[in-house]
Amino acid sequence: MLGFLKEPVVVTAKINVNLVALTVMGLISRLWGLCYPRAVVFDEVYYGQFVSLYMKRIFFVDDSGPPFGHMLLALGGYLGGFDGNFLWNRIGAEYTMNVPVWSLRLLPALAGALCVPLAYQILVELHFSHCAALGAALLILLENSLITQSRFMLLESILIFFILLAVLSYLKFYNLQKHSAFSGSWWFWLLLTGVACSCAVGVKYMGLFTYMLLLAIAGLHFWHMIGDQNLSNVSLLCHFLARGLALIIIPMGLYLSFFYVHLALLYRSGPHDQIMTSAFQASLEGGLARITQGQPLEVAYGSQITLRNVLGKPMQCWLHSHTNTYPIRYENGRGSSHQQQVTCYPFKDVNNWWIVKDPGMQQLVVSNPPRPVRHGHIVQLVHGITTRYLNTHDVAAPLSPHSQEVSCYIDYNISMPAQNLWRVEIVNRESDTDVWKTILSEVRFVHVNTSAVLKASGLSGASLPEWGYRQLEVVGEKLSKGYHQSMLWNVEEHRYGKSQEQKEREVELHSPTQMDISKNLSFMAKFTELQWKILTLKNEDTEHKYSSSALDWITMDTNIAYWLHPTSGAQIHLLGNVATWASANAAALVYLCLSLWYLLRRRRKIYDIPEDAWQLWMSAGGVCGGGWAVNYLPFFLMEKTLFLYHYLPAVTFQILLIPVVLQHLCDHLCRSVLLKSMFSALTVAWFSSVYFVYCTFSPVTYGQPALSLTELKALRWKDTWNILMRKQ
Transmembrane stretches, by residue range (predicted)? Predict the structure, then answer.
């Protein structure tokens, strides 16, 4: 029974020494001296703020993309014991002892290091020789720009890692298709493709470019499968469903999970709350939640409310009034109603309070039981402090003469009667009998007499002059002109009014609410709002010293100074390996010209290379050339500030194209032994130049050793490069 113990247990394993060696070299090149410099380097000043907010569980919105990449950086901080206490206010600021620099930079460095063996495996899976694959990996290893970008708390190396992982996984899955369909390894690589694509998109939306490329390649491969008569309809359906599950459904679910974790971690109120809706703000601990906790849910006749405009940008504001009136005549000579001003005020104030009144009754308190206001009900809005009624009439607004002036009505005993009836329309209602709810309901107020809609027009235009205290204009907009978020309002603060006397009511308006009804948003509601904010909220793009155009990237006419030592000439620059980038451009040009030549010749039934070599050539071009195109060309359509690092995913694919072209030239154009020997010698000489450039620019890649002024001048190979020269 125990006879098997008489023999030793032997485990055999195949180890790819090339792969192990490349991984070790990648780790050394990216991890060496990782803590240097112990100062904020370029965009670490940007991403570091978000890491600190994660450590403190404070909510934020970053319009640059989804939260997965930020969470990975925060994971490094968490593993290093970072408490989030550091002021990220300037590049070059020295890190304090509580900042775990090595941990914060570790994950980007690991991702950058693993790109080296991934490049090797991609070329192998494309059925190129191990020599070509080794060349591709070494080119990635010696690429100065990729080294620089991966050694700091930045996201591009993580993005490139997931992009290459997705490509490799799909190629492995495709190569298993003919002989091992639906096997365990087949499923593993297919599922990993979808997971890697989702992670790439979750790091930066630039990952969508490669995801779309892989979906297109998968669609093309499936189209070819449809023509395979050996596959039954059931088998084709299973293949289709498997791809749909792995490449669409699972990535979508994983993408949602990134936001779920993000929102679960960031439950505290913070500086970015103001751009979110009142409902979202109220779901966070502190901030608005501290004010609104325990408010009544249903708005009733007699309710005391503040009304926040839903648009919320460029700033949040609340419906407001004060005792001052519109001037009798404006600067341009137009007349006004001289009624009490109504504005949208971007700060909390007691003059933001209004009372919801039933037009058929005089009382300004909530009855017992409360009578809720529903969709379609007619109300009057009474300003809490001045007790005047919200009104609009056929008088031109001060800044928007095409719209009606909105005021609080003052009876001057002239032929201008009050027009103060408003119909409540709940835009996000589920039925026509919905009750108007605090925080949750988005409401439009339609004027009964003129059908004008209450609108905060000042959010998209200029503020009022000095007589209006530079507050934002509110107008009555005609309903026929369409709807906009500036016409929508939600109740933010709410209490049930109890005091009929004005003096007592003023005291009541100044006091906090104390009732206990909670309002929680569902995850999908919060996700939808946050996703929409990320996609639509754009910071004002300004010209940056190191910004560049997409055309500058191909010839590397630009660089970015990442860091400068405060006393010596040590500095770090984002600069590519000139020899590699020039070779990548040449390889892309050669690939394009040869492909066109082959296509023309094949059209004439002239086949210069075997069919299997042609298929190999086209598949490699689709992955490497297509990867370069989809990650580069979209930037010509973008209206945003661009930097050289945006080109790194594209140039990574272009670098992979170099060994593809070299092997093709050697195999099919160098026909004789002599030509092959000469070509090999030239390739070695060329690769030596790549290594020489890498060594030459290593001091500005790693930031050490410090260079003299003469040495720095010698590195300025192009006049457009901004190498920093410190006066001595």
Answer: 68-88, 100-120, 154-174, 186-203, 208-226, 246-267, 578-600, 642-662, 674-694
